[in-house]
Design goal:
The protein is an alpha+beta fold. The strands form nine sheets. Strands 22, 23, 24, 25, 26, 27, 28, 29, 30 and 31 form a ten-stranded antiparallel sheet that branches. Strands 1, 2, 3, 4, 5 and 6 form a six-stranded antiparallel sheet that branches. Strands 12, 13, 14, 16, 17 and 19 form a six-stranded antiparallel sheet that branches.
């Protein structure tokens, strides 16, 4: 028994569990997370699944799992478990998994951008995650770390274009966790935050980013900590000052922070080491934009000179002397992202001062900052490591930060204030600081040569007790001192200190206090160890009028004094003027004062700044604050208040307000009006942008410090008076209304204080006064004069704050009544609609709307206002925002009955209007941010509409439908608009593509709403569709009589509603955001766990609605494409559910038409769109489509036709899917499969005339693919297929759907296609195929159009084609048999074979390589394929070369046709091919292997002739079983050799080309081993053979005739050869004659002279040579016929000295058509007898080498000529094949075909090897000559061909072409069974000195005999061992 678990839900595997030995066991690996579902009763076993493999359920032991706490979501079917850890940690894990997959994909595809971004982000995220889960962070650090993590996640998702994560306070928000409208606002805010972070990271240097991110924060602070002091002070102490410096205006920005350093370089306080920190506070938003630096000044405390060796180094040790200065820019810190941690250690480089820079100490920081000033000459030291500091930004109020970051403020952190006031001065923030800057001084030299060492001592003197006050603050935390001593500069009478001193003087002492500055000359001499006083200055802090000393610079007098003036009586100098501005003592002559004479040329400059909230520098303010001292002047004082500047007011705002209300309480009748105006002025000052932040100060004052309990009585009356008498002073009224909310706050607070004072016993007049005031306001708002518009707008903008304040004294209902009456009093035509809506919006968001009583009053009135405005599309944005706020107020899905009624009210008022508005604005095309159709308004309206649908319950839906049920036309209209909007919502881009959570929430609401809105479809509308009598329930619909027109209209509307529903359902199911298969695994898993697959319930719902149509389904059969698109949605369950609808449509189609013609067209067209263009569907769908519909068609009337249609559509699907899968691949990849799929699809579509348009599109596609590879021949045949579909008529045909042809006549389009085809045929050199087209066009121009101009052009083209046929040398193509084995191949290739039309230079390896580009997993097959290979999953490709069976052309029969014409048809327009396989029959004769060597000939026939539309054709017929005997092989070889000899002889006579003839004679005359006449004589021309084979008498006789005829041909060749060669080839020629004579004598007794041979005549006729042409001795030039064997022969050659080879090779016994891999040429090339072969390395002779050299020379020459004519490339001779045993390849007059595998049986025994020639067996000796060109047989010297004799057009070496040996062709008889050919190919060095005697070019009367010359000596070369590696 298994029990469902409740607590054990999540665990981690602590060990491996195999699971194989347990039934239903689940395999687990250590560390794997599991989801536990059930446990056994004994709790020893658990059942569940792995988190990553939820589809695999199983059981596992409980002791293998460590249970962890978890969070269970979606309890039930879609239950998910999450570990109970920090949500941010879980999110990081999930994000890393998703990014990991993207990272791998980016690496695979080479996307370096995404890869680099992800790599950095993932590394940083992993580091942050480790910190987060370490558990070592404080709450503050954890909070900041989470902010940084979420910021980086959002930034990464944004850069990678992944889904946006909606957040509140850094936490993810689920779609079902809040209201839809709230979710929409969260998405907006998250999107803005993400964009801001991205812009900040991309524009780190841009000023203003910090302000944008902190615009709601008024105060900012910089935390500073000095971590280490790294400057060597030589055993002296130091004061280190840190100050914020504004480089823009070159002023200090803050106080100085002092860090004291002892002689050891650390703080005196051990606890402060590394923790000397402060906070630079009170930075405003504008301050963050300034160019702020941190300036560091180091002052050492010691001797005048630190070096004790000098005199100055032995003086006093308490002088304050300059040491060094450093600066650090804070731009990056100030503009850093607020959410990220920016606490970083930074070094400050310290620049030292010396004797040269001593006096510049105060301005050295400016030098370091200013870019234009050079600091290279400034001194540095190797011991100066600088100062290491740590800084970070803090945002917010300081008091709040102390609460949030307690640890930060516990570390003895001092506060360093800003110089001047902060942006906000809160009430109660008492400050009375005076800042004095010691600027500079000018002293008289006094007759001395050197300047003074001046030290300034600053002290504050209290005049009352004549004592120094301890009020000089060196830094926060430091004890105030009585004196401050400045830095001492050596020998300067104009010192500049620039030192800031903070004085904290009590307010009550300020009036009797002055500052005294004492000047002393400091001596560094030990003998004079004292500071000598020589002068003083002073300044008074208060003026005579009671105001403080004004801020700014002051030039002070310097009075002379000495040490005997002990300043015991300050009154002695206080009577003197301290500066030129001191008017109080200006009359006293300071220069004549005996005690303190003034030096007229000495001045001392200081700057003062007072920061006091109690003292003022304004006389008018001072009079106001002291109004009680002069009560008679109060009126004048109040009037002068408006002249006071705002800066002075805000400094002492609290005192000013207290004074005003004190005056009001003193005599309200007299001063109330002036106080009221004063308040308006002060509030107006605070509205200034400069002091806007002080509005919070005013609120704080009203709440905490205001005490006027009677003020409300007078303020209310004055407000009403202003409202009623606005026409008297418009500006004054506007100012009053601008201050209305603050004045009302004073009233409310005053009334509260009054009630508190009276104990709640008010006089009751307040409520009546308020009502009276608002009555006046309503009357004022109703006025329609233009001059009151501004005042009305101002008053309305501030009204809502008044209503908020009224809630403190009145009930919510009373306040809401006043508010709504005020809002409704504003007329629609006043132009104040926007202001009115803003007030209403504030009310909806406030507390009034949360109260049920007030909401019941506000809601109906608000809905009325909003509905009228939305309907008229006025102020849509704010109206929709208000609607959203109303809906968002219902936060809980479980509504009370009262709230449910309110929802019903909202539904009745807004749902129809919102529906119509959505429908209209989605079609709106106006541009602009506030246009109705702008994306923001559409998305806002959508969120409101969906939010309303989500709040609706079943009762609301029923009520809504019931209100329209009695009017069927109205119901149809509503549902039609609803489904239309739903369709737009799921198809249009309403929300950004990365708002996945929002889209899923929208789909869930639409899905649930659809179930309710579909009920009236079958409840009310189905009867109208079926046109049946209505039920009793629906009788009420037709209570009103309808005529037939109305009835028809209703039926039409009902059908339209059903159609719209099905369209919407289809769009819903196919929308991109629900296609889970397109998402990453991580994203798909998230969606499925959270929401499931939303497509399934909608699909089943649509199917159920379809089933309810019953007999009316025929009305909707036109929706085939919709349902077909739905069936293509992945998911077998969904497809099985929807596919029966297609069957129903087939049934309806057959019942109405009796066939499926139209349905077939619709299905075909839509499948082409869905599968190819939209990339939907797969092979599983095709199988399911066929199986389900076949099952549904059983037993139907249309079963037979339906089965045919289904099968046809299934075939189309298969082809479309194959085409789709390859057509989208890169242009250069899968080309073979692309063309195959397009062709198969074309053939399928061509069968149906109605699909010709689609067929033509694939024609163009195939044509483009051919052109990309310059396959012009196939491109021409492709267009020809399209041209065949047109006639030469004048019918007008429309423009094709692909824009290739305009609307034109049919003949014009066909003419254009023909011209394009001719161009392609010309480029493909297939001119024979273009001539019929030229003739057809010529007939058109001549006999129908009479366009002689075009006729002339086409005839010229035709003539050009004829000329090229005869003049241009063309190499015939090579054909290959390609077979595909393996079930994993596509169906169009699986276990099929094709004939490939290759280029003349192609070989087996080329074809195989091109095929492996399409099938990279395919392997070459070198053996026969059995069933295991054909049915296996592995892929094999077999490639072999085949020969063409050229058919006789009836046109040429009996005619003397030039060879150039017949040659084309021997390799083109063919569809029959063959290849031969050699095998041994009977007992093998080791001495004569050819005697038992037979050929098995296999013939192949293809579907169409080649060339054609494709470069390949499928083999449709394989004919096996034809056996070729050795005698027939000999006959075929003899015929072929004779024909080749005749052609070579003809070319030699005509063109003087002798080298090919020499090579051929060498192979025929000297052939001795496995073929040739001698071998044939020994095997076939014996009595024993004749007796054994009596049936071969005719063939034997034929062989004898052929031998005799060949002797005659050889004789003629010898004669021609003798005439054309030079002396260098004469020895070889003599050897030819001698061997030919011996050969004749050896067989004369066995043969008789035959008569004329018909076979020979036929051979000559096929070659285009008449018999009499052989005896014609004319040397005229004509086009020589050319056979396949002679196509390599070029037009001209050079000849040179060539020696005969030492041995003679007999010709091959077996033809090239018989043995694979023997010859070097293909089936249409020269036989292997033209290729020289060597026996082995031991018997290799010079003649063998020369023979190969000749062959290579001829090929190279041919290639050169070929390249120069048509640019094609021809392969060189192949490398030697591997040697086996003593086998010798067949050579001589014959050639063998490609021996290959076939399916016919092969003898198991290997064929016998041909016995090799013995190594020591020497060839016949050659005659010697005394010429130096003779060959020395002993030395092995041989003549070689020189490079100069090669054709000059050949530049690049010709690549070697390997023999088609069957290695890749699946040949059953391999090379080891046949033997070996060894070809000696000379290297490039050995080609020097080749043919040097030119052979005359064909066309001359007689070949010119060149003069004899001796070739250069050729060094001998050692014998080489053949290379078997090739």
């Amino acid at each position: 028994m298994w029990v469902r678990t409740t607590e054990k839900k999540y665990g981690i595997a602590i060990c491996n569990f195999d699971g194989e030995n347990v039934e239903h066991g689940l395999k687990l690996e250590i560390g794997q997370a599991v989801h536990i579902i059930e446990e056994s009763e004994d709790k020893s076993w658990l059942r569940g699944c792995a988190i990553k493999r939820k589809d695999q359920l199983g059981i596992f032991p409980s002791n293998t799992i460590h249970i962890k706490k978890c969070i269970v979501e979606n309890d039930g079917r879609y239950e998910t478990v999450l570990p109970a850890e920090d949500p941010i940690g879980r999110e990081v894990t999930s994000v890393l998994r998703e990014w990991d997959m993207i990272l791998k994909n980016a690496y695979v595809v080479g996307n370096t951008r995404d890869f680099s971004i992800l790599q950095l982000l993932m590394e940083k995220l992993m580091e942050l995650r480790l910190e987060l889960i370490s558990g070592l962070l404080t709450q503050e650090q954890t909070r900041e770390l989470k902010k940084e993590i979420t910021g980086r996640i959002d930034q990464g998702n944004n850069q990678l274009e992944l889904d946006l994560v909606p957040r509140i306070g850094g936490e993810m928000v689920a779609g079902d966790a809040c209201n839809i409208y709230q979710l929409y606002k969260i998405h907006l805010r998250s999107s803005e935050d993400t964009k801001y972070m991205s812009s900040s990271s991309n524009n780190k240097s841009t000023k203003g980013t910090a302000l944008e991110g902190t615009q709601t924060i008024l105060s900012h602070h910089i935390y500073f900590n000095m971590k280490n002091f790294g400057c060597a002070l030589a055993g002296e102490e130091a004061d280190v000052y840190f100050t914020l410096y504004n480089a823009s205006n070159q002023t200090y920005f803050s106080e100085r922070y002092l860090a004291k350093i002892n002689k050891q370089g650390v703080s005196n306080n051990v606890e402060m080491i590394g923790k000397q920190s402060t906070i630079f506070c009170d930075l405003g938003n504008q301050d963050l934009l300034k160019d702020i630096y941190l300036a560091c000044h180091i002052v050492r405390i010691g001797r005048m000179n630190p070096h004790p060796s000098t005199t100055l180094g032995r003086g006093p040790k308490d002088y304050r002397r300059p040491f060094g200065v450093g600066v650090l820019s804070l731009s990056d810190l100030l503009t850093a992202d607020n959410s990220s941690s920016n606490e970083k250690e930074k070094p400050i480089k310290i620049t030292l001062v010396n004797a040269n820079t001593d006096n510049d100490f105060s301005t050295l920081h400016e030098t370091l900052i200013t870019p234009g000033k050079s600091s290279k000459s400034l001194p540095t030291s190797t011991t100066n490591l600088g100062v290491i500091i740590e800084m970070r930004m803090l945002h917010g109020e300081l008091e709040q930060l102390k609460i949030e970051k307690p640890l930060l403020f516990k570390q003895n952190v001092s506060i360093t204030r800003k110089l001047g006031f902060a942006d906000v001065i809160m009430p109660g923030d008492v400050r009375n600081d005076l800042y004095v800057v010691l600027d500079r001084a000018i002293f008289d030299r006094g007759g001395k040569t050197a300047g003074k060492n001046v030290e300034v001592t600053v002290c504050v003197i209290d005049r009352s007790n004549m004592r120094k006050m301890p009020c000089i603050c060196l830094g926060d935390g430091e004890k105030p001192v009585e004196e401050y001593k400045s830095v001492v500069y050596r020998h300067t009478n104009q010192p500049r200190w620039n030192e800031i001193i903070k004085l904290m003087i009590p307010i009550d002492k300020f009036n009797d206090t002055h500052i005294r500055f004492e000047f002393r000359h400091c001596s560094g001499n030990r003998a004079n160890n004292m500071r000598k006083l020589f002068g003083m200055s002073f300044v008074k802090l208060m003026k005579g009028d009671g105001t403080t000393l004004h801020d700014g610079p002051h030039e002070l007098y310097v009075y002379t004094c000495t040490d005997h003036n002990r300043f015991e009586n300050p009154s002695a100098y206080l009577v003197l003027p301290f500066s030129t501005t001191d008017t109080a003592n200006k009359s006293i002559n300071a220069q004549n004062n005996s005690n303190y004479p003034r030096s007229p040329r000495e001045f001392f400059h200081v700057e003062t700044t007072i920061c006091s909230t109690k003292l003022t520098q304004n006389v008018n303010l001072l009079d106001l604050l002291r109004w009680k001292k002069n009560t008679n002047n109060v009126v004048d004082t109040l009037r002068r208040l408006s002249k006071v500047g705002g800066q002075d007011i805000v400094r002492i705002l609290q005192d000013v307000l207290d004074t005003l209300f004190s005056i009001l309480d003193d005599n309200p009748e007299k001063y109330a009006d002036l106080v009221f105006k004063g308040l308006i002025y002060i509030i107006g000052v605070l509205r200034d942008s400069r002091f806007k932040s002080f509005t919070t100060v005013l609120d704080t004052y009203i709440e905490r410090h205001f005490s006027g309990a009677l003020a409300h009585k007078y303020l209310l009356s004055y407000l009403q008076r202003v409202t009623e008498n606005i026409q008297m002073n418009h500006d004054y009224a506007s100012s009053a209304f601008s201050s209305f909310h603050f004045l009302f706050k004073f009233c409310i607070r005053s009334r509260i204080l009054y009630e508190q004072t009276t104990g709640g016993k008010g006089d009751g007049r307040f409520v009546s006064d308020v009502r009276s005031l608002f009555s006046s306001i309503k009357d004022f708002m109703k006025r329609d004069e233009d001059y009151v518009r501004k005042a009305q707008s101002t008053l309305l903008e501030n009204c809502y704050i008044v209503f908020i304040e009224l809630q403190k004294l009145l009930s919510p209902l009373d306040v809401s009544t006043l508010m709504m009456e005020t809002i409704e009093s504003v007329p629609q035509s006043s132009g104040l609609t926007g202001v009115k809506l803003k007030c209403l919006s504030q009310a909806i968001k406030g507390k009034l709307f949360t109260d049920s009583s007030s909401r019941s009053y506000i809601l109906p009135l608000s809905l009325g206002i909003l509905s009228s405005l939305i309907k008229g599309e006025q102020e849509l944005r704010i109206c929709l925002s208000i609607v959203g706020d109303i809906l968002a107020s219902y936060k809980h899905l479980t509504l009370t009955e009262y709230e449910s009624n309110e929802i019903q009210l909202i539904v009745n008022a807004l749902i129809g209007i919102l529906l119509n508005t959505l429908l209209h604005i989605q079609k709106d095309q106006t541009v602009g941010p506030n246009a109705p159709g702008s994306p923001s308004i559409v998305s806002l309206c959508t969120s409101c509409f969906i939010c309303l649908l989500k709040l609706m319950k079943e009762g609301h839906y029923e009520m809504l439908i019931s209100t329209m049920a009695h009017d069927l036309e109205k119901l149809c209209g509503f549902l039609l608009r609803l489904f239309c909007v739903f369709e737009h919502l799921v198809t249009m881009v309403i929300f950004p593509k990365d708002w996945m959570v929002m889209k899923m929430a929208l789909n869930i609401v639409i899905l649930s709403s659809t179930q309710y809105f579909c009920q009236p479809l079958h409840t009310y509308l189905i009867d109208a569709v079926q046109n049946e009598p209505h039920s009793k329930d629906s009788q009420s619909i037709y209570e009103t009589p309808h005529d037939e027109g109305v009835q028809s209209r209703i039926i039409s509307h009902c059908i339209e509603v059903w159609n719209r529903f099905f369209l919407f359902a289809s769009c819903f199911l196919t929308q991109p955001c629900l296609q889970l298969e397109t998402f990453t695994v991580e994203k798909r898993s998230k969606i499925q766990d959270k929401y499931g697959d939303l497509r399934e319930p909608m699909a089943f719902h649509a199917v159920s609605m379809w089933d309810k149509l019953g007999s009316t389904k025929a009305e909707f059969k036109s929706k085939t494409s919709l349902f077909l698109g739905v069936t293509l949605v992945p998911g077998s369950g969904l497809r099985k559910a929807v596919l029966p609808i297609i069957s129903d449509i087939m049934d309806c189609e057959f019942q109405s038409k009796g066939n499926f013609s139209q349905l077939e067209d619709d299905l075909s067209d839509k499948l082409d769109q869905f599968v190819v263009q939209e990339r939907k569907g797969d092979n599983n769908y095709r199988d399911l489509f066929e199986s389900v519909l076949m099952q549904q068609s059983k037993g139907k009337d249309w079963e037979e036709k339906g089965v045919h249609l289904i099968g046809k559509i299934a075939q189309l699907l298969e082809r479309l899917i194959d085409y789709r899968n390859v057509v989208s691949i890169n242009n250069e990849d899968k080309r073979f499969m692309k063309i195959s799929c397009i062709y198969n699809l074309m053939n399928f579509l061509y069968q149906d005339r109605s699909k010709r348009d689609t067929w033509a599109r694939h024609i163009y596609r195939l044509h483009e693919l051919h052109l990309r590879k310059d396959e012009h021949t196939e491109a021409a045949f492709t267009l020809l297929e399209l041209a065949k579909t047109y006639n030469w008529s004048d019918n007008l045909i429309p423009e094709d759907s692909y824009g290739r042809f305009p609307q034109q006549k049919e003949r014009e389009r066909k003419e254009i296609l023909y011209n394009k085809i001719l161009v392609h045929l010309d480029k493909g050199q297939v001119w024979e195929c273009g001539i019929p087209l030229c003739k057809e066009l010529a007939d058109l121009y001549e006999n129908k159009l009479y366009n002689y101009k075009k006729l002339s052009t086409i005839l010229k083209t035709q003539a050009d084609f004829f000329t090229k046929i005869l003049d241009v040398k063309r190499l015939p193509p090579i054909y290959f048999l390609v077979e595909f084995f393996g079930k994993s191949f596509p169906a169009i290739k699986r276990n099929k074979c094709f004939i490939f039309r290759g280029n003349p230079c192609d070989k087996v390896a080329n074809i195989l390589q091109s095929l492996q580009a399409d099938f990279p997993n395919a392997q070459p097959l070198s053996f026969k394929a059995d069933d295991s290979i054909k049915n296996g999953q592995a892929q094999y490709i077999s490639v072999r070369q085949v020969n063409v069976t050229a058919s006789e052309n009836s046109r040429f029969k009996g005619h003397n046709v030039p060879h150039e014409i017949t040659l084309f048809y021997q390799g083109n327009e063919v569809n029959e091919f063959f290849y031969d396989r050699p095998f041994q029959k009977g007992v093998e004769d080791k001495s004569m292997p050819m005697k038992s060597m037979w050929l098995d000939r296999i013939t192949l026939k293809t579907t169409f002739r080649l060339p054609g539309v494709l470069k390949w054709a499928e083999v449709t017929q394989i004919i096996k079983g034809e056996k070729i005997s050795p005698l027939k092989i000999a006959v075929e070889t003899m015929k072929k050799t004779s024909a080749e000899l005749e052609l070579l002889n003809y070319n030699a006579k005509t063109y003087g080309v002798v080298e090919p003839l020499t090579m051929k004679l060498s192979g025929v005359v000297q052939a001795q081993v496995s073929g040739g006449i001698t071998v044939y004589r020994d095997i076939f021309l014996t009595e024993s053979y004749a007796e054994e084979n009596p049936d071969d008498d005719d063939i034997i006789q034929e062989l004898k005739n052929l031998i005799e005829d060949q002797f005659r041909i050889l004789s003629e060749c010898i004669i021609v050869h003798s005439r054309l060669i030079d002396d260098t080839l004469r020895p070889l020629h003599d050897e030819f004659k001698r061997q030919l004579l011996e050969l004749k004598r050896s067989i004369q007794h066995d043969t008789s002279s035959p008569g004329p041979l018909p076979e020979r005549k036929e051979s000559l006729n096929r070659l285009g040579i008449k018999n009499e042409d052989r005896s014609n001795k004319s040397k005229s030039v004509f086009h020589t016929p050319e056979t396949q064997a002679t196509r390599l022969i070029p037009k001209s050659y050079k000849r040179g000295p060539v020696s005969p080879r030492k041995n003679s090779d007999p010709g091959l016994m077996i033809s090239q058509d018989a043995l694979s891999g023997i010859g070097t040429s293909d089936s249409s090339s020269t036989s292997s007898s033209s290729i020289p072969h060597t026996r082995d390395s031991g018997s290799s002779s010079s003649l063998d080498i020369n023979n190969s050299t000749f062959y290579r020379s001829s090929i190279i020459s041919n290639v050169s000529n070929r390249s120069s004519s048509d640019g094609d490339t021809f392969p060189s001779i192949p490398p030697p094949l591997p040697k086996r045993g003593g086998s010798r390849p067949n050579s001589g007059t014959g050639s063998t075909s490609s021996g290959s595998r076939s399916d016919s049986p092969i003898p198991e025994t290997d064929p016998p090897a041909v016995p090799p020639r013995k190594v020591n067996e020497a060839p016949p000796p050659l005659p010697r000559k005394t010429s130096s060109s003779n060959l020395s047989r002993r030395s092995g010297e041989m003549p070689v061909i020189t490079r100069e004799t090669l054709p000059t057009t050949h530049e690049n070496p010709v690549p070697s072409r390997p023999v088609d040996s069957g290695i890749y062709s699946g040949s059953e008889t391999s090379l080891k069974d046949i033997g070996e050919i060894q070809i000696t190919v000379p290297s490039s060095e050995e080609l020097n000195g080749l043919l040097s005697v030119q052979i005359p070019v064909g066309g001359t009367a007689e070949p010119e005999v060149p003069p004899k010359r001796t070739p250069p000596p050729v060094p001998s070369r050692p014998k080489r061992t053949p290379d078997h590696s090739q």
